[in-house]
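So, can you check this record?

>
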Amino acid sequence: MLFCDDPSLYGYPVLPALPPMPTVLSRVAWGAKAPNVALMHRHRIRFITIHHTGTPQKPLMLLERKLANLQLFSQREDKLASGKTKPAWGDVPYHFYISTDGRIGVGRPLEWAGDTNTEYDPTGHALIVIEGMLDTEPFFEAQKKSLYELVLFLAARYEVPPRRIKGHQDYAETDCPGSKAMEELPRLRRAVANRRS
């Protein structure tokens, strides 16, 4: 299940002709703990923003374990590699995680704004993270396929225009989501524009 409830409850229109919803690994399937909603706030999706994990790819680790580890890290205060302290967040910071094999996991439910260690406000952004360091590691075809399917669906469902589909570095001082993902974004925006027309 992609959504924990019906998006129309939050004022989104009921749209009759959507692209196919990609197959996703639900929060229940990966054993998500309850979010700490006291540390979160609701929002409406107006943007789609692409990230990469910025950590080495682990193709032999199951997506279920990757998401459980990410939630464990996210819900506690922790030191980052930069030496900066990350506060405890309410849940996984991203709404979707695309692993090296192209599997898509549901992270934070979409009705809650995500979190970031950088200086931008992710309110209104559907956050998609791609596993890896996409300057130096492969951007696998399976990952690209899943990214296209997911973005096409989200853009149609939440009426996000192509100009609002960007990379993390378009909003903050960061190399995220890596050069290989940034190179793909113009083609991704064209695919969304073609679908809309």
Summary: The domain at 17-196 is CATH 3.40.80.10 (Lysozyme-like). The chain is about 25% helix and 15% strand.
